Every structure is written in structure tokens, then in C-alpha cells.
Amino acid sequence: MSDQASGPTFPTSLGTSTADEIRLLGRDLTEELMGQVGFGELAFWLVTLRRPTRAETRVFEAVLVALADHGFTPTAIAARLTYLSAPDSLQGALAAGLLGGGSRFLGVTEDCGAWLHDVLERLHGDLPDDEAGWDELARSAVRATKTAGRYVPGLGHPVHKVQDPRTPVLIRIAEEEGLRGPHLRLFEAVGRVAEEELGRRLPLNGAGVCGAALADLGLPVELLRGFALLARAAGLLGQIAEEIRRPIGMDAYLTVDRNAVYVDPADPGPLSDED
Known about the structure:
- This protein is an all-alpha fold.
- Among the domains are: 23-52, no CATH class; 108-224, CATH 1.10.230.10.
- It has helices at residues 3-6, 29-33, 39-48, 54-67, 74-85, 90-99, 108-121, 131-147, 166-176, 182-198, 206-216, 224-245, 249-258; strands spanning 15-17, 22-24, 27-28.
- A 3-stranded antiparallel β-sheet has the order 1-2-3.
- Helix 6 packs across helix 12 (224-245) and helix 10 (182-198) packs antiparallel against helix 11 (206-216).
- The radius of gyration is 23 Å and the shape is flat.
């Protein structure tokens, strides 16, 4: 018996290979997957270990498209400036952008999905049966979150002050595919009651609706940020490609550098509006 056969084993349901064959998810990669499975479909399959339905694939890929790029966000700027500094390290530029996926940008996808999931889990399957019931559930959840001194994830956007254009479209796609489930319904209800509970109008943002849609697909809520990062990786690669074709990184750097002004650390600075 060879040393390999007699040594420890490491179980996996993902990828394995021999000198002659690569297998992924229990299938021959070259014969059964390449050219037959889309990348979004494969990403879903790798996490859930089941092939998604056509409807699930459509909703899932709509989420990936919604999160791929949103202009000169901090993640895009970080990637471009890192590439400016180290053009020999494409992976560093991509990583720099991905590392910015947190509680303000991209991470909201997971935060919102997890928040909605937590509210629903407490119901133990006893879901509301009409819009009024969903509104009451949302009102109670928003009120409790506010009382705890925390923000309700998925509300507000730095650019889209009235409506995030991604939100109604993703809800419509989920409805068309029969996948507008309890997370999306609760999220919609939050949008209807939040102004009354919080005292100001905040739109349901795209990252939040993506989290709700992913949770309705049954994807693990603790991995939802990973799907947002998967989508944004494509957008960041596009940002870096554009930085090569039409660079703005040096201008961004010089604009900040040339307008830097020294201040005495003992100077309290101007008072804010709240003061």
C-alpha cells in the first residue's frame, strides 16, 4: 500500500484531481461542467452542494449583477489607488478593494439578511398571512432595534435618497420566479413602516434587498457577505482595467495631497451643526 493510501484522509465534496482527471462536485469538470454550467450557477452549487433551479439561478445572478459595481465607491477607489502604487500586484489591488466590504459598503448585504433571518427565526414558522401582519412584525422589529441603539440594516443610501433603483427590480424578479419569500416580504414591510418608527424617510437600499433575496434562496446568512464580495470582484477588475485605459488614480492622489492643510492638534476645529 502506498504512503498516500495509508496516510490520513481529508474528506471533501468539492474538487479533487488525479493525473488524468479533475472532478468538481462529484462530476467530471471537463465533460459535465465546462461549457454547460454558468459561473453564477456554479458559485451557488459550490456553497449549497445542490444545483440551483433555473428560477434560483436567475434571482441569484440578478443579485450578483446588482452588486458588481456602483461607481467610484471607496472599494473602487482603494483598488485603483493600490494599483497606482503597485501596478505589479493586481491581486493586491483587488484585495484592497475587497477588504473595504464592511458595515457601510457591501457588508450590508449580510447584515440585512442576518437581521431579517433573526426576526423570522423567532416566529418558529408562524409567519404573518397578510400585509398588515407583516407591517406589525416589521414595526416591532424596527422599534426593538432602535431601542437597542442600533441601526436597521438595509435602510438609506448615500446617493439614492428617494429610491434605490435596484430594489423594486429585484423584488419583481423574485416575484416572477416564485421566490419572493419571507425575508423579502419582511424587508418590504420595513420600508413601509420605517419612516413612522424612525422619524425620517430612508429608502430600502440595494445591498439590503440583495441580502433578503439571498436569504430567501436558503443561502447561509453567515456567508452572504461572501456573495457580495464575489460580485464586487468582477466590478473591481473592471475598475482596474479602466484605470489602465483611462487613469484617474494619480489625479485623485494629487488632489488630496495638494489640498492637505496642517491643523494644530490642540485646535478643536469648527463646531458641528449638532453642537
